[in-house]
Amino acid sequence: MIRHRQGNDFLLITQDDHARLSGRLAEHFGNDQFAAPLPHKQVIDAIAMHDCGWPLHDDSPTLNPAGLPLHVFESPISISTQVWSEGVRQAKAIDPYTGLLASLHVLALSATVHTPDATVADRDERRQELFLLNQFQQDQIELQDDLRRQLGLRTDIPLRLGLAKPDATPRDEREDLLAFNYKLLRLMDRLSLELCCSEVLPWKIDSIPPRPSTEPVDMRVIRLGDGQVGVEPWPFSIDRLEFQVPFRRVLGAMFADVEAFRQAYGNARIERLIVHVVRATSH
Question: Dihedral sign, CA of 99, 103, 104, 109?
């Protein structure tokens, strides 16, 4: 769940709705400079489903230690690994390529976002976190190997987080395409987060090749206001994008307990946040 601060309120956006926004953005990706994803449906489905396991948490959301609605960036390993696994399971049921992209995404997240919390004094708790993380990563590696076999992709080349190393020789066009589609997923994910989150995000936007097997270009994403970003170079097929994102509004304060929070969240009506993506050079 995304905890978006707006005045005295929190706008709470589910991870699944954030991912659906990513997919809607991706549907318009591609123009004279940037290639559209291929295979199109499988890639769009993967982008739209990359957080589809999160209803396991967001249907019964929790609080952080400060008594605030748990932001996705605060999620403990025990929650993340569970929802990531469920999301990959659902994506894999749609198509092996969709499942592989979803798995690549969460495997990379597990390696970069989560490390066992060094501030946790309980050594048993820290060991349990490390066990869950290692188990999740091993499961995804084995799953990706199986999906690669189903898709006719190579399993005998060096991989880093499931992708062929960029300097691998000889180059494989299918691996370059997979890497392009994965980077597209990451870009759409990050762009959607920029639209949905109120805080400045700490991570740099990844470079992305305009087409598979080409040198990546830097993407400039600029916040132009709440729910509006500018992008340059422009990668979409239309000049301006506008979408509505569902959210529930709750008081932006500490809750006494999770039951009180869930009651407030459940009683809140669904509203819509209007978001825009425009050309950065026009602002």
Answer: positive
pLDDT tens column, 125-148: 778 888 999 999 999 999 999 999
Extract the tokens encoding 213.
């097997």
| Residue of 242, 239, 240 whose CA lies nearest to 195 | 242
Q: Which amino acid is at 90?
A: Q
Tokens standing for 49?
């489903």
Q: In what order do the strands lie in the sheet with 220-225?
A: 2-6, 9-13, 241-251, 270-279, 228-232, 220-225
Q: What is the pTM of this model?
A: 0.93
* Amino acid present at 110: S
- The β-bridge partners of 270 are 248
Domain-wise residue ranges, the chain: 2-282
- Written as one string, the DSSP assignment of 153-216 is --SSS-EETTEE-TT-SS--HHHHHHHHHHHHHHHHHHHHHHHH-SSPP-SPPPPB-SSTTS--
pLDDT digits (tens, 9 = 90+) for 63-119: 999 999 999 999 999 999 999 999 999 999 999 999 999 999 999 999 987 655 555
Burial 85-117 (b: 16+ CB within 10 A, else e): bbbbeebbebbbbbbbbbbbbbbbbbeeebebe
Contact indicator for 256, 16 with CB cutoff of 8 Å: no
What whole-number distance in Å separates Cα of residue 72 and Cα of residue 178? 27
